[in-house]
Write a structure and sequence with these properties.
The protein is α/β, with parallel strands linked by helices and about 425 residues long. It has helices spanning about 10-15, 20-25, 40-55, 55-80, 100-110, 115-130, 155-175, 190, 205, 210-220, 230-235, 250-265, 335-340, 345-355, 370-375, 380; strands at about 135-140, 145, 180-185, 225, 275-285, 305-315, 330-335, 355-360, 385-395. Helix 7 packs parallel to helix 10 (about 210-220). The longest helix has 27 residues, at about 55-80.
Length: about 425
């Protein structure tokens, strides 16, 4: 049996049936959408499209890329701000691009974290692979070697023959002025200290180079002596080569000078007395550190620097330059082994010979350019010496010598000649 529907009361009927007047509905303002500036609107649409197209993993990669670009931008702005001290007036040549290149170099030096990137890459090469920049060969036990003792190309055998022939031409040129020549062959550091080499070994040409040079020079009639025996014997007492440098130690230079003086004992007269004094010991960062750019961020990974004993040779009061004579007895020509004062090779040679030695050696030019420069100098033309000691490191023989092109040598300068009687001058 159905119940009769209940009828709403009078107040309820009025509330349910109430409708606002039409004019009131039309007058009520509707909220208008907020309009964004057009750059923000475009960015919002791009962001929405980007979020829709990319998944969570891609979004992480994208944010990493954005952060990296932001970091590069910030570093670039900082580097530019630090480069504001650049002065264009110091580089007036705009048309040849020198101004742009100068600013690029200036900016590169001021760029933040540049050293960190260079040091990090060098540290990875050094620690993971035992390698450095081109120019150095990393050995064991903190020993470093110049890569010039390992270099080899297709022209190396011919260059050895060519340079040995040039030495003979120098001998003949000096003989025309009645000047004797003694060639002193300095062995490679890797030959004196092979026990510290790593996995990289000198090629066959370098292994036989020392003996080949001496045999060829003797066959051509050149007075020559090698320093390998004296340096090998001397290293039993003290190091004869620096561990992190290309050069020998002052002790090795002194041992070499004594051996040369013994060879020349009958050819050079004493003109004075000399003595050598020790000035202490100093820390020496070898030149081979230049090819291991780990400082300052990873400098602790580098081998410890050498301890170098500072010495100098002084002429006594009764000695003196040229010993009171007008003609020099001995002239020294060679490389940085002879030119740089910290090795004191020239001073040790003076003390061993008890005679003045005029030093015409030059650093950074190899053995041949300093000799050709000396032969063309006024000193040689006006007052040639009685004897020239020519220090020649063996490692230069197979290497190209581009500076020789500046000297107009005769055609026979590189021709091989057979030995002639008394060609060596009796040394």
């Amino acid at each position: 049996m159905q119940r009769p529907a209940t009828r709403p009361q009078t107040g309820e009927r009025e509330a349910l049936s109430y409708r606002p007047p039409l004019d009131i509905v039309r007058a009520r303002p509707r909220p208008k959408p907020r309009r964004l500036p057009w750059p923000a609107a475009v960015a919002q649409r791009l962001r929405a499209a980007w979020l829709h197209a990319m998944g969570p993993a891609h979004r992480v990669l994208a944010w990493n890329a954005v952060l990296f670009l932001a970091l590069v931008l910030v570093l670039g702005i900082v580097g530019l701000a630090r480069s504001l001290d650049f002065r264009a007036k110091d580089h007036p040549d705009v048309w040849k691009g020198k101004l742009a290149h100068a600013f690029e170099t200036h900016y590169d030096k001021r760029f933040p974290l540049k050293n960190l990137g260079v040091n990090l890459w060098a540290a990875a090469d050094y620690e993971l692979f035992g390698e450095g920049r081109p120019g150095v060969v990393v050995g064991r036990d903190g020993w470093l070697y110049t890569d010039e003792e390992f270099k080899l190309d297709n022209d190396s055998p011919a260059l050895v023959v060519r340079h040995l022939a040039l030495i003979d031409w120098v001998r003949r040129t000096l003989a025309q002025r009645h000047v004797a020549l003694l060639v002193v062959v300095v062995p490679a550091k890797a030959r004196v200290y092979p026990e510290h080499l790593g996995r990289r070994q000198p090629p066959a040409l370098h292994r036989r180079l020392y003996a080949q040079a001496l045999d060829t020079l003797h066959a051509e009639g050149v007075s020559a002596m090698g320093l390998l025996p004296v340096l090998l014997d001397g290293k039993r007492q003290q190091p004869t080569f620096l561990r992190t440098d290309t050069h020998w130690t002052p002790y090795g230079a002194r041992q070499a000078a004594r051996a040369i003086a013994a060879r020349l004992s009958d050819s050079v007269d004493a003109t004075g007395t000399f003595h050598t004094e020790t000035l202490g010991t100093q820390v020496h960062r070898g030149d081979l550190f230049n090819f291991l750019p780990l400082d300052p961020w990873f400098g602790s990974l580098l081998p410890p620097p050498d301890q170098l004993r500072k010495v100098r040779t002084i002429a006594d009061a009764r000695g003196g330059l040229l010993g009171g004579t007008s003609t020099p007895a001995v002239a020294l020509v060679g490389t940085s082994y002879s030119a740089e004062p910290q090795w004191n090779f020239a001073g040790a040679l003076e003390q061993a010979l008890q005679a003045d030695v005029l030093n015409y050696a030059k650093a950074g030019e190899g053995p041949f350019t300093p000799m050709l420069a000396y032969l063309g100098s006024a000193d040689f033309r006006v007052a040639p010496p009685k004897l020239v000691v020519w220090e020649v490191p063996e490692r230069y023989l197979p290497l190209p010598q581009p500076t020789l092109a500046a000297y107009h040598l005769p055609p026979d300068a590189f021709a091989v000649h057979a030995a002639t009687p008394a060609a060596s001058g009796g040394l």
